[in-house]
Every structure is written in structure tokens, then in C-alpha cells.
Design a protein that fits this description.
The chain is an alpha/beta fold. The chain has a domain of 163 residues: Rossmann fold (3-Layer(aba) Sandwich). Helix content is 34%, strand content 20%. Strands 3-2-1-4-5-7-6 form a 7-stranded mixed sheet. α5 links the parallel β2 and β3. It starts with 33 loop residues before the first helix and ends with a helix. 31% of the residues are buried. It is a single-pass membrane protein; Single-pass type II membrane protein. It comes from Trema orientale. One of its GO terms (biological process) is methylation. One of its GO terms (molecular function) is methyltransferase activity.
């Protein structure tokens, strides 16, 4: 078991906090996490963290202009972020009455789950080529930033979409951000799953290759036995 444990950084004084002291809530949400300020995450600086935080505030406000259900306060409760990175999406929704599960894919270039915890958020790891344990809840809303690009060549898009469909409640919605070529492919598949879909331009304008797909899961059921019998009779008569 010792090989599986990540030891805390060593300290020189008994009053020091191993790993660095975090700010009190709610300041800790937007304060630079100790893992970043200490330089322990390669390539992620305090400036990158601050820029990412502001970027997601802008993006979430943009989302609310075209997803009326996300904009409606209290309409959604449980949200799933499939590629959380630094937790900026969840942080931007802190004033909304929602609960966000932040997922760091095991294939992500940088392990940022510790940053998410240091911000006071909740999160987990997940390989999206495999099923996710959702007990005891499903989700009203799913957000996926570049997930399909990340898993290209690893597993089929259809498998990821089916897992998302299993997780998502009827009349819930999905927002996908990705390259336009991937978005077009995904839209064809998700339309076949009886979703209502719409492609929206990037928040910075139509010239950006990254596009946004809004997909709403419909509440539908298979035709009843009586409807099937009538359809069979019509075919026989014709």
C-alpha cells in the first residue's frame, strides 16, 4: 500500500502546513492554490490560474445566453464536468444553487485534481472509455471541454456518448466544446439518439475553429402495444 500513497511535502517547522496553507472559504475558491504557487505543477503558473478563472466566468455567462435551462436559477442541481482542468467551470457557477462533480481524465496531460480540492471543490478521476460509477445520483447537465479530442484513437465516440446518455436525466442538457470537425461528427450521432441539438459559435466569434454543441435529451418512450397493432393493420391493408 505504501507505493500507492503520495507523501505530503516535508516541512522544517512544526507550525508549517505540509503542501502549503490554503485560504479560508470562500477566498480559497479564487486564491492561487499552494500546488501552483509552489511550482509543483509543471507548466501551470499563478498567472495561468487567474486567467483560466476569468476565462470560465466569461464562458459560463455566454453559455447562459443560449441554454435557458442553465440560466434558470434552480432548474439544474447536479452537474458533471467531464474535463475539469483547474475547476474554472465549477468556480464560475459558485453563486448558482448547483453541485458540480469535477472529473480529471486519467489521460489528461497534467494531474490537476489536487488543485480542485485546494479550491474547495469536489472531484475524481475517470477514464471515459470506461463506465463511470454514478451511485447514488444521475446528472441534470453535462459539460465536456475537448473530451472527444482527448479520446481520439483511444475508444469510439459512440461509447462515450452512450455513457453520457446513461448518466444524463431526461430533459437535461449537454454542452460540448471541441474542434468543428469533431462537433459535426458528434452531432450526427447524438441526433440519432433523439436529442435536440444546435451548434453555436465560439464566444470569440465564428472564425474560431472550436465550436459549441448544445444537446438536450428528450423525454420519449417507445410506442405502446396498441400503436404497434394499428401500424401492423395499416401495413396489411395497404
Amino acid at each position: 500500500m505504501e507505493d500507492c500513497l503520495t507523501p505530503l511535502p516535508s516541512v522544517t517547522d512544526i507550525k508549517e502546513v505540509a503542501g502549503g496553507e490554503v485560504a479560508k472559504w470562500p477566498e480559497r475558491l479564487n486564491s492561487v492554490p499552494p500546488r501552483i504557487s509552489s511550482g509543483s505543477l509543471t507548466g501551470i503558473t499563478a498567472e495561468i490560474f487567474r486567467e483560466n478563472t476569468e476565462l470560465w466566468k466569461k464562458r459560463v455567462e455566454y453559455y447562459k445566453t443560449f441554454d435557458n435551462q442553465l440560466a434558470e436559477r434552480g432548474r439544474y442541481r447536479n452537474l458533471l464536468e467531464m474535463n475539469a482542468y483547474l475547476g474554472g467551470f465549477a468556480a464560475a457557477l459558485i453563486r448558482d444553487p448547483v453541485w458540480v462533480m469535477n472529473v480529471v481524465p486519467v489521460e489528461a496531460e497534467t494531474n490537476t485534481l489536487g488543485v480542485i480540492y485546494e479550491r474547495g471543490l469536489i472531484g475524481t478521476y475517470q477514464n471515459w472509455c470506461e463506465a463511470m460509477s454514478t451511485y447514488p445520483r444521475t446528472y441534470d447537465f453535462i459539460h465536456a471541454d475537448s473530451v472527444f479530442s482527448l479520446y481520439q484513437g483511444r475508444c469510439d465516440m459512440e461509447n462515450i456518448l452512450l455513457e453520457m446518455d446513461r448518466i444524463l436525466r431526461p430533459q437535461g442538457s449537454v454542452i460540448l466544446r471541441d474542434d468543428v470537425d469533431i462537433i459535426v461528427k458528434v452531432r450526427g450521432m447524438i441526433d440519432a439518439m433523439q436529442y435536440t441539438t444546435r451548434i453555436i459559435d465560439h464566444e470569440d466569434g465564428p472564425l474560431e475553429r472550436v465550436k459549441i454543441l448544445l444537446a438536450v435529451k428528450q423525454y420519449w418512450t417507445a410506442p405502446g402495444l396498441e400503436s404497434n397493432n394499428k401500424a401492423s393493420e395499416t401495413e396489411s391493408n395497404s
